[in-house]
Amino acid sequence: MSCIILPPDADSLRRAADALKQGKLVALPTETVYGLGANALDDMAVAGIYAAKSRPSFNPLIVHVANRHQAEHYADFTPLAEVLADAFWPGPMTLVLKRKGDCPLSHLVSAGLDTVALRVPAHPTTQALLNASKLPIAAPSANRSGRISPTLAEHVAQEFEKDDLLVLDGGACSEGLESTVVDATGKSPVLLRPGSITPDEMTAACGQETLRAATHSDTPQSPGMLLKHYAPSIPLRMNATSREPDEALLAFGACPYHGGTILNLSESGNLKEACANLFAYLRKLDKAEHKAIAVMPIPETGLGLAINDRLRRAEKR
Ligand code: TXA
Ligand code: MG
């Protein structure tokens, strides 16, 4: 298992597209920074991104698509989103939009939210990969959690030296700064993360004032972004070692309970599989007929840290 840098030729593109289809990770160049990509339709592949980055919590991920037409398969475009997409796509602009009711993207890319962040990158190599694979590609910056975003293929290879990873070499990223992230679900753009497209440029394009996330919501914000979390509508109880009547059960590993509603995140106790199922299962159990969701203990190691972080937020609500 090792990390391989590939030149951006037709052979490499085929290899990278095949790897994505098999659920593997591919690092790809964009005009902003290199991304750590996976098939956004495949829960296990997306879980692989979190595992490789060792993120201690789930941040929703940006889904990269070849063009606006593809983006419209996955999200509801507001008039504002249409204007911003026309003005800035392809390019370093990420639009947060409502997922379509039948959106086939993994719920893990949205970290359980009912929105999805979409971007059409301009870099020709990644455009070619999107077209060759015909897949939407989920990709955060290709660095381990807490490290600096990579702007050269070599940076990615240093970071993921021992991982089974193909890195498409697209040279140095021209922007070197992550994309501007904008909530475009309303009438005015709301800046969630500053990037190389400025609020003034957005305002000029759409004729609406660009709002800051911090003034948009009265809840405390993580730096520069609006981090809402999906919370179930019924109470959630972690580390459950017993089960009350009327509770739905989110099981993990060997399950001693029978009857009622039970979904098992991973019968074999595999944390990556648990991560892949987490948000979809929480949604399925979040039904008024249950008094609460009891969750069996999940180990505080590896991906278990991110899963428990997420569950703790859902428990607090
Ligand atoms: O330039 C970039 O944006 C790079 C390249 C690879 O495209 N990607 C990148 O991804 O920086 P990442 O995962 O490091 O940052 C994604 C940002 C985070 O701040 C995340 O919170 C926000 O986008 N985001 C993604 N989905 C969101 C959603 N549904 N609602 C709100 N914010 C979202
Ligand atoms: Mg990042």
Give structural notes.
With 317 residues, this protein is α/β, with parallel strands linked by helices. The protein has helices at residues 10-21, 43-53, 68-74, 79-88, 124-133, 153-159, 199-206, 213-216, 271-285, 303-316, and strands at 3-6, 26-28, 35-39, 62-64, 93-98, 115-119, 137-138, 165-168, 180-183, 190-193, 211-212, 236-237, 247-251, 262-264, 292-295. The strands form two sheets. An eleven-stranded mixed sheet has the order 1-8-2-3-7-4-6-5-9-10-11, sandwiched between helices. Strands 12-15-13-14 form a four-stranded parallel sheet. α7 links the parallel β10 and β11. It is globular, with a radius of gyration of 20 Å.
SS class: alpha/beta
What oligomeric state is this? single chain
The strand line-up of the biggest sheet is: 1-8-2-3-7-4-6-5-9-10-11
Main sheet? 11 strands, mixed
Order of helices and strands: EHEEHEHHEEHEHEEEHEHEEEHEH
Residues in helices, as a percent range: 25-40%
Give the number of DSSP strands.
15
Q: What is the CA-based Rg, rounded?
A: 20 Å
> Low-confidence segments, ≥5 residues, pLDDT <50?
215-226
How many helices does DSSP assign?
10
Q: Mean of the pLDDT scores? A: 92
Span between termini: 41 Å
Question: What fraction of residues sit in β-strands?
Answer: 15-25%
What is the molecular shape? globular
The small molecules bound here are: threonylcarbamoyladenylate, magnesium ion
